[in-house]
Amino acid sequence: MADLKLLTERVVEKEKAAIRERIEAAKVQAEDDIQAFKAKEVAREKQAREDMTLKSQNEYTIKKNTLEIDKRNQLLGAKQVVLDKVFKDVKKQLDQIERADFQRFALGVLNQFEAGSELRLVLGEKTANLLDQKWVETQAPKTMTVELANETVQKQSGLIIEKDGIDYNFLFDSLVEDIKPDLLSDISKDLF
Known about the structure:
4 strands, rod-shaped
């Protein structure tokens, strides 16, 4: 019976040792799982911080670019207002051109046509009182026929030359609009 008792004790001890080993293995596995979970959480938190930082940087860049574009657009809008006013003022001054200056202008225009031309001169309403038939008879080149039309171009200053069914537009509004693209960069440099 003593052998049976000894044998039972050995089996119990063996089982206790096996249980202790399983418990130790479970503790080690649990500790490994905890460490792996912690490492995974640290990595996840680090990635979340990096993602938030990247998102914040992207949002900042977008907002900064939007503000810069808005600023540029406001500046361009203000410049456009100034440029429009400059051209409006030029047109207004041309509408109030002095008689002598307009007569020099008209003579310069007439001299652009070749000798022997038959021209019909139509004045803008705003400058119609600056030339008359007497001026045409005394100042127009003698090498061409120039007729002063009775009608005027409404709400305009300057003149139109009719030759062989073609109208040559020398109305000041049109002339300013024609040279506007060439002058914009020069005026912009001077003003801004």
